[in-house]
Amino acid sequence: MVDIKEINERIQRESAFIDVLALEMDKVIVGQKQMIERLLIGLLSNGHILLEGVPGLAKTLAINTLAKCINGKFSRIQFTPDLLPADVVGTQVYNQKQEAFSIRMGPVFANFVLADEINRAPAKVQSALLEAMQEKQITIGDQTFKLPNPFLVLATQNPVEQEGTYPLPEAQMDRFMLKVVIGYPTKEDERKIITSNISPQGMPTPNTVLQPDDIIKARTVVKDVYMDEKIERYIVDIVFASRFPKEYKLQKFEGLISYGGSPRASINLALASKAYAFIKRRGYVIPEDVRAVCTDVMRHRIGLTYEAEAENITSEHIIAEILNTVEVP
To answer: Can you give the residue ranges of every domain in the chain?
Structure first.
């Protein structure tokens, strides 16, 4: 029998660092609470994040700040059409003195890797990240190297410009745990952003409040968050409704969805729900946790047909309908 009270007390103790980390992040990042929350979910559940938003919304700054708070190694790769896979993962370099090849490791060997404007580079470069994201290792020549732990890829893409971009294939999109769409700040937040940027003291700098080992330890605690069988069935129903809408009385989406969420969607929805409950200092998952993270987990996993695009129906619209229709436990 699972002792919910004991788990709850333990989670409340172990999740105390969340408030400290959020406080340090808030020093630098004004507003954007949802983005910070999603970064923490990805970090705690060992998932990668795709951030989509127009330029200047502090995407790079947020990731850099998170790395400083956790004392992790941060590297930024600017994806461009002429980038090569070797520029990302590293390559073999011939050493004339030793008359042998030596390995030069690429920027992907870091705890936090920012793949800036990932859709600007062609498929061969995008796929160089696939092994890193899934297997947490890199193969250069005949040697395989483990990546540091924790390892988190945060990719950004600009939704405005489509010229000279290479859209991410479905298989690679599926490797991102969350796709977070970032909007503009409020008027009050924007005024605070101006104040902090023009102040004589300069931008505030975050303090290191955690070590990478603390995150690895926290991940094992997140897995202990209790999830009832009813919640598991609820998650499966949500994902199945995206695959077979007719079975869930959503016939109107029959010709609008080309493919639904993969089994990875179910796994990530469960992991993200546990991480969300942990952030809220709770030792058990409730349906509201699933609903809170569902859109970010599912929006890039539902394929739309031409008919859906012609009717201006988005994946967010379909997810909202699914959440309204599927029975809540």
So the answer is: 16-197, 223-325
Contact of 246 with 231, CB cutoff 8 Å: no
Intervals of the chain under pLDDT 70 = 1, 160-164
Per-residue pLDDT of 181-203, as tens digits, reads 888 888 888 888 888 888 887 77
Q: Which residues contact 43 (CB under 8 A, 6 or more apart)?
A: 66, 70, 150, 152, 215
Q: What is the DSSP letter of 259?
A: E
Largest CA distance in the chain: 71
CA nearest 283: which of 7, 50, 84, 58?
7
**Which tens digit of pLDDT belongs to each residue from 65-87?**
888 898 888 899 998 888 888 88
Report the predicted TM-score, pTM, of the whole model to 2 decimal places: 0.88
> At the top level of CATH, which class does the domain 223-325 belong to?
mainly alpha
Single out the residue of 167, 63, 61, 172 nearest to residue 117, CA to CA.
167
Q: Is the dihedral of CA 108, 109, 113, 116 positive or negative?
A: negative
Report the alpha-carbon distance of residue 203 to residue 67 in Å, rounded. Answer: 17
Pick from 182, 199, 216: nearest CA to 299: 182
Residue spans of alpha helices (H) in 136-262: 170-173, 187-198, 212-223, 229-243
How far, in Å, CA of 130 to CA of 262, rounded?
17
Which one of 3.40.50.300, 3.40.50.360, 3.10.180.10, 3.30.450.20 gives the CATH number of domain 16-197?
Answer: 3.40.50.300
DSSP assignment letter at 280: T
CB 299 within 8 A of CB 319: yes
Backbone angles phi and psi of 153, in degrees to 5: -100, 125
